[in-house]
Design goal:
Layout lengths: L5 E4 L30 E4 L2 E4 L6 E6 L2 E5 L6 H12 L6 E5 L5 H4 L2 H6 L3 E5 H9 L11 E3 L3 E6 L2 E6 L11 E4 L4 E5 L7
Parallel strand pairs: 1-12, 5-6, 6-7, 7-8
Antiparallel strand pairs: 2-3, 3-4, 4-5, 9-10, 10-11, 11-12
Length: 193
Amino acid sequence: LVLAVAVVSAVGVGVLAQAPAQGQPQGQGRGGGQPVQPIQMVKPGLYVVPGGGSNSIVRVTPDGVILVDTKLPGAANYDALVAQIKRVTPQPVKLVIVTHHHADHTGNNDRFVAAGVKVLGHAALASALDTYQFDPKPAKPTETYADNERVVRLGGAEVRVLHLGRAHTGGDSVVYFPDVKVVATSDAMTTGA
């Protein structure tokens, strides 16, 4: 029996992304200079929004949206991300999962928290934000998990948030959507150099 699983990394879906330039500042991400791009379907109910610092994954459910990663900080990235989500669903974002502490993945946590959205990340991600040198410093998750897995459910969709040990940072999470057989690896797996 062969199980096919699609993998969505931090740098591209279906296209080969360029490697970051030498000396790129930590936390700027591969799409730091690129505006938020149009939303793309990966599978029915699962989308990716490239640009604005990193890929954001959008899982649409009947009860709301699960969003993975919030892009570089700023109203322009936040507004563009929300606008892209609204192109595929009128449902509000109910849960944000952040995959590691770099600002290209956590930069708009504060805006989602202000909107009443729960933000989930690994405990090591939250600790890393204490000493993270980025201005503005991203907001910490409103909820953390310290073990190797957190399972969340919304609108009939299950999401497994996995901490598989140190990878790109000490607080990395890999996000698995078992019903659509897609894994979002964030920067734990990238293309290029």
